[in-house]
Design a protein that fits this description.
Layout (H helix, E strand, L loop, with lengths): L1 H25 L3 H16 L3 H19 L2 H7 L26 E3 L13 H15 L1 H6 L7 E6 L5 H12 L3 E5 L10 H15 L3 E5 L15 H17 L4 E6 L7 H5 L3 E5 L4 H12 L6 H10 L5 H17 L5 H11 L6 H7 L3 H9 L8 H7 L4 H16 L1
Parallel strand pairs: 2-5, 2-6, 3-4, 4-5
Antiparallel strand pairs: 1-3
Helix pairs in contact: 1-3, 2-3, 8-9, 11-12, 11-13, 17-18
């Protein structure tokens, strides 16, 4: 009997223990690691092998993150040639408008928290950072890390955030240029701006981050293109070639189909960031809605409403929920989501939105019959502020009335 109680206790509270351990290991010290090791050993001794392995994996990830801390990676960049960027460094400007061609972000200005993606994408990203971690060792065998990376995918999937986070892990300043801002109506000015930007980036130890990359890099064979744009693309190709082995270059685009094949070949690595999976959407919602507290069925319901949407949509919904629950304390989550669906039609599937805004009985039936999310009747009853028995009676009466 006592063993059964221990198992039930572990199943009920281990998710909390795991979350606490993960939070503690985000900024670990010897005392924290020691206590988590003690906990892991105790779990192993009591037969909770799966839970012990979970804590062991957390500690391994923490050790890996410490090994790749920016300070350690940054020391490897001593081998790179170039001047140090400072807050006093003068940025090149468009000579026609005097507008700066880029912004400088120093490591402390960049995102500290890693973006949330599926595990396979996270592993691919980790490979990039690992290469820079082994910079000195690669040089010893006459090799270097990948010098360029193209990040592409649908809007709102966290591509620019990812690029900035990678830059923070590497630990040197970022020169961020939105290529739309380099374009000019004056003949020859766009090409000159691109050349000046790359000359600046090649002069300093930095990561060059090219956002809105498709603004210029269109297919050169497009019949709509004029000679000036073709010359601009050629300038960009030559500039990317000049950047090789002088620093790390990251391109970000929402429209990879517009990129010239020659542009693709200039990037050592290409990473596609898709719309988030169900698991990732749930993790994003938990992250963005904090410090609001929602139970598992409520979070699953919010994910159901956003199925097929982007990470940016999850963040937008979370802001909406915070406003709604501050303005009207005790709001019902279903009613709040009806308002969201009404005023954010592009973020909720059309079929779902129409049913949500029609009859509650249809809404409940849609949730009950969803094969992906597998809502239980008690979960739906709780969402609508009813008991399971009342929900059953309510749906039965509705079905009977429809037969009449």
């Amino acid at each position: 009997m006592e063993k059964v109680f221990e198992n039930d206790f572990m199943l009920k509270y281990f998710n909390i223990i795991q979350a606490l351990s993960r939070s503690a290991l985000a900024t670990p010290n010897e005392a924290i690691v020691h206590q988590i090791k003690r906990l892991k050993e105790s779990l192993e001794k009591d037969g909770f092998t799966k839970e012990a392995k979970s804590l062991d994996a957390l500690m391994e990830s923490s050790e890996s993150a410490l090994d790749m801390s920016p300070s350690k990676i940054q020391r490897s960049f001593i081998a790179l040639k170039g001047e140090e960027l400072t807050h006093k460094t003068t940025m090149p400007v468009d000579k026609e408008t005097s507008t700066p061609l880029a912004e400088i972000f120093f490591p402390n200005d960049l995102p500290e928290k890693a973006p949330i993606f599926d595990e396979n994408i996270q592993l691919a990203i980790q490979t990039i950072v690992n290469e820079w971690k082994k910079f000195d060792e690669l040089l010893e065998i006459n090799a270097t890390p990948a010098s360029s990376c193209l990040i592409y995918g649908a809007p709102g999937t966290g591509k620019t955030h990812l690029a900035k986070w990678i830059a923070r892990q590497i630990g040197i300043p970022v020169v961020l240029a939105r290529l739309e801002g380099l374009m000019s109506s004056y003949l020859g000015t766009t090409s000159r701006n691109i050349g000046n930007l790359f000359a600046f980036a090649n002069r300093y130890k930095c990561i060059l981050l090219l956002d809105e990359f498709d603004a210029i890099a269109k297919l050169r064979n497009d019949p709509q293109e004029v000679g000036e744009v073709k010359r601009v693309v050629n300038t960009l190709l030559q500039s990317l070639d000049s950047r090789h082995e002088k620093g790390f270059t990251i391109g970000v685009t929402n429209h990879e189909s517009l990129l010239d094949p020659a542009i693709w070949r200039r990037f050592d690595i290409q990473i596609e960031i898709p719309n988030p999976s169900l698991e990732v959407i749930i993790r994003l919602l938990k992250h963005f809605t904090s410090p609001l507290e929602f139970n598992e069925s409520e979070i699953k319901f919010l994910a159901w409403c956003l199925e097929g949407s982007s990470g940016a949509d999850a963040e937008m919904l979370s802001k909406w929920l915070k406003r709604a629950f501050v303005i009207e304390k005790g709001s019902n989550i279903v009613e709040v989501m009806k308002q969201f669906a009404l005023l954010n039609s592009g973020r909720v599937d059309t079929k779902k939105r129409n049913i949500m805004l029609h009859r509650d009985e249809d809404f409940m039936g849609l949730l009950l019959n969803d094969k992906v999310f597998s809502f239980k009747q008690k979960d739906i009853a709780s969402l609508f502020g009813m008991t399971p028995s009342n929900l059953s009676k309510h749906l039965s009466k509705f079905k009977d009335s429809e037969k009449i």
